[in-house]
Write a structure and sequence with these properties.
This protein is mainly α. It has one domain. The chain is 72% helix and 0% strand. It contains 5 helices and no strands. It starts with a helix and ends with a helix. This is Prephenate dehydrogenase/arogenate dehydrogenase family protein. Pfam families: TYRAAT1_C. InterPro entries: 6-PGluconate_DH-like_C_sf, TYRAAT2_C.
């Protein structure tokens, strides 16, 4: 049965990764946890319409646009139900705090 599923997904040209549930959740803590958190920050910032942008900013905006309107229920499920997201959040906010402190140094 597993082989049939893998064959079907290969025909759809999907990337298949055989992994454990723990490894999956660890990776998703960054992939989904961080992406949705950044999108939520962008939404809370209420960015103005930007008509001058760099390629990098445009790519960031595009990435955020994929998830910015996802439901709060999905956001909280990602942030609260994956046991590895806490570590991701701690690292993210620690890095933001460290950067903020560096910016305030003379």
């Amino acid at each position: 049965r597993k082989d049939c599923v893998i064959e079907f997904l290969n025909r759809l040209k999907l990337s298949i990764f055989e992994t454990t549930a723990e490894d999956h959740d660890t990776q998703m803590a960054y992939v989904m946890g961080l992406t949705h958190m950044i999108a939520k920050v962008f939404k809370k910032m209420e960015l103005p319409d930007i008509f001058m942008e760099t390629k990098t900013f445009a790519l960031l905006q595009k990435a955020v646009s994929y998830v910015i309107d996802d439901s709060d229920e999905l956001f909280y499920a990602i942030q609260r139900d994956n046991p590895f997201v806490d570590t991701t959040k701690e690292k993210f906010f620690a890095a933001v705090k460290q950067l903020e402190e560096q910016l305030h140094q003379k």
